[in-house]
Specification:
2 domains, alpha+beta, 27% strand, 27% helix, 7-stranded antiparallel β-sheet, D-amino Acid Aminotransferase, Chain A, domain 1, binds 4'-deoxy-4'-aminopyridoxal-5'-phosphate, disordered C terminus, D-amino Acid Aminotransferase, Chain A, domain 2, 9-stranded mixed β-sheet, 299 residues
């Protein structure tokens, strides 16, 4: 069955879901987005994702033409139309169609796109054996140039970092900020474990305030683990007992090698394992998984 995509109030079969070549989202990466997951029909942390979308939009002076409730409804209706239980949801708001030229005022109506798709899961082995990462020369966008808190459509900074890591034979890139402190990865936040405590860069290191990051911090604190949001350097990465990445799609992924240095014992560490188990329990249990969608699911 062809997936249906929501564009500006209407559902289109995916082959017909198209935007104008004059959309400033395409021409300039001018727009914002969210990546969300639904687990067994429950959309995880929907309110947080919607709030972040509207804040990203506000930061770029983009007025989303529908309110948050209408956005939620549009999302539910798209999920329902596709009859999806476990899905990856992409909310996109572009500046809209306008004349060539950077002025945002050239675009009159922002476009809203909602894609609900099957979730492409990472191979389960990866959560046991972990991934190999490298620190890259491409620094994370300076907050005074383009604040990484804005989840905007221009991901060139991250793509350049990803190219560097792939060229170096590693699957993920760890990006530093302009001062040389660890910031985040290309599509995930980063944590390290040292002596039983968790350390992650603070938001003002110049990172996206990840919703998975916040959830993991909360889960860890509830479990009595000390979590520090502090600046740290490559030295702390190289000498960490464990390292993992967090993101909506990937959840919690262990990193077992950084710049050729083996992290801990070279396998998914104990704290990473336990946080992953807790995270999976939280996302998959109907009581805590978030907002239930009025989706009729074929079983
Ligand atoms: N950092 C970046 C640059 C990202 O793109 C993402 C996810 N898209 C994250 C971190 C993780 O954020 P979240 O946990 O909200 O998915």
């Amino acid at each position: 069955m062809a997936l249906k995509v929501y564009i500006d109030g209407k559902l289109f079969p995916q082959d017909e879901a198209k935007v104008s070549v004059f959309d400033h989202g395409l021409l300039y990466g001018d727009g914002v987005f969210e990546g969300i997951r639904s687990y067994n029909g429950n959309v995880f942390k929907l309110q947080e994702h919607i709030d972040r979308l509207y804040e990203s939009a506000k930061a770029i002076a983009l007025q989303i033409p529908i309110n948050k409730e209408e956005m939620q409804e549009a999302l539910y209706n798209t999920l329902k139309a596709n009859n999806l239980k476990d899905s990856y949801i992409r909310l996109v708001v572009t500046r809209g169609v306008g004349k060539l030229g950077l002025e945002h005022t050239k675009c009159k109506i922002p476009s809203i796109i909602i894609i609900t798709d099957f979730i492409e899961l990472y191979p389960s082995r990866l959560y046991e054996v972990g991934i190999d990462a490298v620190t890259v020369r491409t620094i994370r966008n300076h907050f005074e140039a383009l604040n990484p808190r804005i989840k905007c459509l221009n991901y060139m900074n991250n793509i350049l970092a990803k190219i560097e890591s792939l060229n170096a034979g590693a699957s993920e890139a760890i990006m530093l900020n302009a001062e040389g402190y660890v910031a985040e990865c290309t599509g995930e936040n980063i944590f390290i474990v040292k002596h039983g405590e968790l350390l992650t860069p603070p938001v003002n290191a110049g990172i996206l305030k990840g919703i998975t990051r916040d959830t993991v911090i909360e889960l860890a604190r509830k479990g009595g683990i000390n979590v520090m949001e502090e600046l740290f350097t490559r030295y702390e990465l190289y000498t960490a007992d464990e390292c993992f990445l967090t993101g909506t799609a990937a959840e919690i992924v262990p990193v077992v090698k950084i710049d050729g240095r083996v992290v801990g014992n070279g396998k998914c560490g104990r704290m990473t394992q336990s946080l992953l188990a807790k995270y999976r329990e939280l996302t998959r249990s109907p009581e805590t998984a978030g907002v239930a969608t009025p989706v009729t699911v074929k079983t």
